Amino acid sequence: MLDFRSDTVTKPTPAMADSIARAAADPGAMGDDVLGNDPTVRKLEDSLAAMLEKEAALFVPSGTMGNLLCVRSQTEPGDEVFLHREAHIHYYEGGGYAAVAGVSPKFVGGAAKEDRGVFTGTQLRRAVRPTDDHFPRPRLVCLENTHNRAGGTVWPLETFAETCETARELGLRVHLDGARVWNAAVSLGVPPHEITRHTDTVSACLSKGLGCPVGSVIAGDGPTIERARRFRKMLGGAMRQAGVVAAAGLHALDHHLDRLSEDHANAGRLARGLNAIDGLTVDLNATQTNLVYGTLADDLPDEGAFVRLLAEHGVLILDEGPRSVRFVTHLHLSSGDVDEAIGRVRAALDAWRQR
Fold it and tell me: Distance between CA atoms of 49 and 7, rounded to whole angstroms?
């Protein structure tokens, strides 16, 4: 079975598993993180704060919690948050920003497949209303890079910087949902801090492209991260001997960042192969990192039936809405696996047409 559903399906490599085992076996490698004395967690947080050029960082169980903590730590209930209408924070995180942080969303930008999840400083400026008791207080801009529903697309660095600068001119703070910021940095050919230096906070996932079994990190200025630490406890996200999983993150930073370019190359290979199959269309220009979105022709099965059809032929993918499906490359898939998957998709459709 070839699993292209997500880069979250990855499991620790043998070398990463050894790092986890060594941490678990070493009494000096773990403590109680709630009490602030787990040395492996502290090392991971310090390493990521330095890498992202932020004052402080905080290890959290998931990217969803990381985004929620950053929103809640920079707003008060009733504040207005600006984000793309197909942002992950809005689309896939259970409405936590409304239910827990109590903020009001203001959408900027259009359909993700059209604008690549990008909006400009001019668009942001137009979305911010004047101070008036009738309106919520504008407070935070949330950007997403890479942008999931746009197809793993990357913000042009100049546009990203300009939008962030406009936010500051408007008195707004900026949060980056950087679940796959590592992929964005590799695609742009810059270190991650060249992206994150423009934002006040960032969340970055360790359990997607980097292959860790669990965990994300948030980073920002010291007071904001201390406030986030309190909310993490409130939400039940504080962990005890978390060094056993933080060790996986440290291994990933040392060994799994540079190899992300392989996932991008495999995604491009996959996109070209799928686009050559009758009935499947892939926007090759939108395949910029490790996500590949395919559009199904009207004479093919609907997306749900298509997902089930490929599963019968040993390829697992996700349904992404009307006539759209998603493939994701990751560290467990080689170029040979990509070629095999292309062949299986073609065979699956040939078989379906002959029914």
Answer: 24
Residue 153 per-residue DSSP state: B
Encode pLDDT of 40-92 as tens digits.
999 999 999 999 999 999 999 999 999 999 999 999 999 999 999 999 999 99
State the Cα–Cα distance between residues 347 and 314, nearest whole angstrom.
Answer: 11
Is pTM beyond 0.85 here?
yes
Q: Are strands 56-60 and 216-220 parallel, antiparallel or unpaired?
A: antiparallel
Going by C-alpha positions, the residue among 266, 265, 263, 292 that lies closest to residue 280 is 292
Report the chain's C-alpha Rg in angstroms.
21
Alpha-carbon distance of 145 to 195, in angstroms, equals 9
Asked whether the beta carbons of 286 and 118 are under 8 A apart, the reply is no
Q: What share of the chain is helix, strand, coil (3-state, %, to 5)?
A: 45, 15, 35
In sequence order, what are the beta bridge partners of 294?
282, 325
Neighbours of 89 (CB within 10 A): 25
Buried b (16+ CB within 10 A) or exposed e, 197-214: ebbbbbbbbbbbbbbbbe
Can you list the positions of beta strands (E) in 122-197?
138-144, 173-178
